[in-house]
Design goal:
Layout (H helix, E strand, L loop, with lengths): L37 H8 L7 H12 L5 H4 L39 H38 L4 H40 L1
Helix pairs in contact: 4-5
Length: 195
């Protein structure tokens, strides 16, 4: 092809009619009218848990270390848990099955064998419940992956869903860490009362 860049014409076979202004963003006149589902709304109203002390400490250490900045490490921080910004212990764990197994902790030792046995049962129940919650979230996230595949979702939508999954996984992990800490405090309080 030989194109004369000095002589360019726009040719239309049909008349173009402008029917007013339209927008392409959510909520605008003539734009998309998408609203969150009831499930998504419920996530927004869930009780959100603050980071535990160790996570806050990790974030502060990461902020003060120049090697943790993306400019310095090209997106590959020297410490794996720091990947993903200030995400706490979950790091790159996007889904519950990416997390390390639920820790049952050491056997409670309060000096009272009956009390220890009762606390051990409570600890086992808590670990089983946490594993069930992980499995339930994993199944829900897998369903969303299947829906994305059926819809032939674009990369932006897939990335949004993965970010949501990472946030859900981290919130669940924080909740479980907080439960474990509270249980350990309960065991310590029981031990100090019985002595």
């Amino acid at each position: 092809m030989n194109i004369n860049v000095n002589n360019i014409h726009n040719v239309y076979n049909e008349t173009v009619i402008n029917n007013g202004n339209h927008v392409s963003f959510n909520g605008g006149n003539g734009g998309i009218n998408a609203r969150p589902t009831a499930e998504e709304e419920s996530y927004a109203h869930e009780r959100h848990i603050a980071p535990v002390a160790a996570q806050t400490q990790h974030m502060q250490e990461a902020r003060s270390n120049p090697q943790m900045r993306a400019k310095a490490n090209m997106g590959r921080p020297p410490v794996a848990a720091a990947r993903g910004g200030e995400m706490g212990h979950a790091g790159n764990s996007v889904h519950p099955h990416d997390l390390p197994p639920v820790e049952r902790g050491s056997a409670p030792s309060t000096g009272n064998p009956k009390r220890d046995q009762k606390l051990q049962q409570q600890q086992d129940k808590m670990a089983a419940r946490q594993n069930q919650e992980r499995d339930k979230l994993q199944q829900r996230q897998e369903k969303e992956h299947q829906q994305l595949a059926k819809q032939n979702a674009n990369e932006d939508r897939k990335q949004q869903v993965e970010q949501k999954h990472q946030q859900q996984t981290q919130q669940l992990q924080q909740k479980h860490q907080q439960q474990t800490q509270q249980f350990q405090q309960k065991v310590q309080a029981s031990g100090s009362r019985k002595k």
